[in-house]
Amino acid sequence: MAQSWDGFDGFLELIDYPMFVVTAHGEDGPAGCLVGFTTQASIDPPRFLVGISKQNHTFAVSEAATHLGVHLLAGDDLELARWFGGQTGDEVDKFAACSWHAGPVGTPILDAAPAWFVGAILDRFDLGDHVGYLLNPVDGQAPGEPRPWINLSDVADLKPGHDA
Length: 164
Prior knowledge:
Number of domains: 1
Helix content: 10-25%
Oligomer: single chain
Order of helices and strands: HEEEEHEHEEEEH
CATH topology: Pnp Oxidase, Chain A
Strand order of the largest sheet: 2-1-5-8-9-4-3
Distance between the termini: 13 Å
Low-confidence stretches: none
CATH superfamily: Electron Transport, Fmn-binding Protein, Chain A
CATH architecture: Roll
Largest sheet: 7 strands, antiparallel
Number of strands: 9
Mean pLDDT: 90
CATH class: Mainly Beta
Structural class: alpha+beta
């Protein structure tokens, strides 16, 4: 295991990252998980980077996928975020307990998400215990005004369905 600089852990504790639900369409149906490792990676052309744990069921589905869905959930959808973060698709059909539809290229879109986009996977990068997916946004929706989104502090006590 790589050494961690103590100050770095303290630095990270200062950041209240937004949390996203990432979805993929696989041969056995939809998959999705709660993720916090994301960032805009380019303005022109538009690019977004999503990190998915190698231990996660969604990772296995994402490895064969051509597109991923990236969803922002509003603060009042905390239970949905906890569902996607606290369960594993290895044991539970997460999509049986929520409303969703097939979006672009069959990518699962959560109906409760007021903001989402589907991105074509341009590249994959080994990031350690996660794999980064570089996405080119191809479709999506966003509300006209900002909302209080679910952040790391909202789910900090969540026991994940899989370890990182």
